[in-house]
Design brief:
Length: 210
């Protein structure tokens, strides 16, 4: 079913990616890019001023990331529809995105048709996951995974620690105290059965989180 007049907000911290998405989505006469935003916080502000039918949201962005922004957007407007578009093809991230309330999860490595299909599905309030991840996501949601025990904030700290950031840097990036970062680190190690930052980094690399 073709839905005419789908308005879209595009959220990505990279200007080149936003431009590419604009070109791709402009190819369909039934879609209209209403606005762009460079991070989660500005996306929420734009949505509050000008609600759109579907928000196409990057997952990893400075400050408020795609998961946080999706949750906050849905608290503001329970009818909001979000499609996550990311370079990360991790099953656990797809599952977390759906749990956060997103209706779609598409890899940036997917065929262009998958993104447009996800947008149309979201406009109809249907869930869409990239074909290459679909079966694995269903199994993941059924069976569970250690990463599911981490909160969104703990996952943010995990990926930053594994990328080599120091506690003080992470605290500045997430607007929390250094003590809070260290508390999150201890809980992450405990939940995942790891001993130190080296174990944490190896775990993150194996899972494709960094």
């Amino acid at each position: 079913m073709t839905l005419p007049g789908i308005t879209i907000g595009v959220v990505d911290d990279q200007a080149l990616v936003r431009a590419a998405l604009r070109r791709l989505l402009a190819e369909g006469a039934e879609r209209h890019i209403a606005w762009e935003a460079h991070d989660g916080r500005s996306a929420i502000a734009r949505y509050e001023r000008e609600p759109v039918d579907v928000v196409v949201m990057d997952l990893r962005m400075p400050g408020k990331d795609g998961l946080e922004a999706t949750r906050e957007l849905l608290r503001y407007d329970a009818r909001a529809r979000v499609v996550i578009v990311t370079q990360y093809e991790e099953v656990d991230m797809a599952a977390r995105s759906l749990r956060a309330g997103a209706l779609g999860f598409v890899s940036k490595g997917s065929e262009p048709g998958e993104l447009t299909a996800a947008i149309h599905a979201a406009a109809e309030r249907r869930i869409f996951v990239s074909e290459r991840l679909r079966a694995a996501v269903e199994r993941y949601l059924d069976e569970g995974d250690p990463l599911q025990t981490l909160s969104d904030r703990e996952l943010q700290v995990l990926t930053r620690l594994a990328s080599g950031a120091r506690n003080r840097e992470i605290a500045c990036q997430l607007c929390i105290s250094v003590r809070t970062v260290d508390s999150h680190r201890r809980r992450i190690l405990q939940k995942l059965g790891l001993r130190n930052n080296s174990d944490l980094t190896r775990f993150a690399v194996r899972r494709g989180l960094v």
